Each structure stands twice: as structure tokens, then as C-alpha cells.
Input
Amino acid sequence: MRPTVLAGLGAAMALVASSVSAQQTSSVDKKVDPFSLSFSTGLDYSSGGYGAAEKTDILVVPFSLRATSGNVAFTATLPYIRIDGPGGVVVGPSGEPLPGVPSTSGVRDGLGDLSLGATYTIPAETLGGFELGLGGRFKLPTSSQRKGLSTGETDFSVSADLSYTAGAVTPFVNLGYRFLGDPEAIDLRNGPTASVGASVLLGGSSVLIGSYDYARASSNLAKDSHELFGGISGPLSSRLNLTGYGILGLSEGSPDVGVGLLLTARIF
Output
């Protein structure tokens, strides 16, 4: 899974957990924590040809902090990235391999770009049962462009996430748009992203989530991304939560397969 997507996965699972809490707690007894802080890390592995003759394997270890105060949440993510693939492939604006750029083949690794995000959530009580999250995210060029781990440019994205809880099921749709910085001699394209899916409350506090995800290709040399995502998330203790997930690529713009684990610890 892409580093920037990993940056948002913990936030997405936090929103799911919030929906679970809302289902388990009456409106009279429900209390909102004034402030909370959590840390997430894990392992993510993906592999795919992306339209090339040779496959590219990517390992990502994200390190994320999430601070929530009322309806506002802030996130910061810095990933470690290891990429093993042919020359001419670098990690693109959203973490996908970007073909057509001169680079060294073989294994490259190091810290990726720093991602900073903010989300404001309008609660379901305000919108007649619908919950709306409005977010923005900056990706700052803190990684090595020489190693092919970054384009060396700042990118910005906006998104809107709408969900509605009906019993144990919460369908959702996410629409976004990416504004990409153009590296020297490379013409990158701004474009939309979209996800549609649902989460299902299982026994206890575990949640099953599935979605179809789309992203427009950031280069004319690449294909649009179409993929299926599935995951399960549940508590290990009152402060620890574990999420496991997998992805299946449906196009040359996506990895063939991907798997990952994400561990989230509530600090306070």
C-alpha cells in the first residue's frame, strides 16, 4: 500500500472505531474525549509489474502520530521505504512506482516523504445520521530524490468522506483530488481519487472493512489505479488496536497484490 494511503489508514480505522463506539453507546451516555494522542506503526508489502517487464517490490514501515481534539484531528506520518525494482522507476507522488524517470535499478531504501494532514468531522447528529469528514494533506519532499524515493516536490490533496451507520453496517464513500508538484523535466497530472465500501461490526469490537479504490495516474506513462481493499481491525487491549489488510490490483496502475499489518497504541 502506498505511504500516503498508509498515512490515512490509521485515521480511517479511527473513524470506523468511532462509529463502533457510537453504536455501543447511547446518545445520553456518550462522551467525547477533549484530547487524545495515538501512535501507529506496522509493515506493508506490495508487488507488481505496473506495466513493466520486471516486477517492483515495495516494503513500507510507517511511523504515524494522530492527535484528536473534539471534531478535529491532525496526523503526521514518516515512512521507511525499501524499493526493489528496475531502473527508471521511482516512488511517485502517492507512493506508487512512477515509470520513465532515470534511476538506479536494484534495492534502494531510506526515509520517505513527511505527510501532514488534518480532518474536520461533522457528526451524524448534525446531518440527520450522515457523518462527513473534510480533510487536507500535504506531502513534503523530505526524502531522497537521488535514491528514487521521492519526486522532490510538495503535493497537496483534499478529500471528503461521507458515511451512514445502519445497525452493524456503515457504508461510506470518499472523494478526493490531488494537486501534484512537477519535478524538473517531468510532467505530472493532478487528478481525482475515489473509494466506495462499507464496514461491518463483528462480535465484540472487531470491524471488517472492504472497499473499491480508484486513483487517476499521476503520469501519462502510467495507468490509472483500480484495486480492492479488505481488512479487519480489533482491539488487543484497552490501548492497543491491530489491523490486518490485503489489496488486490485490478489494473497496471496498481500492485498485483499487497498485505500489511498496522498496530495503533493510544498514548492518552
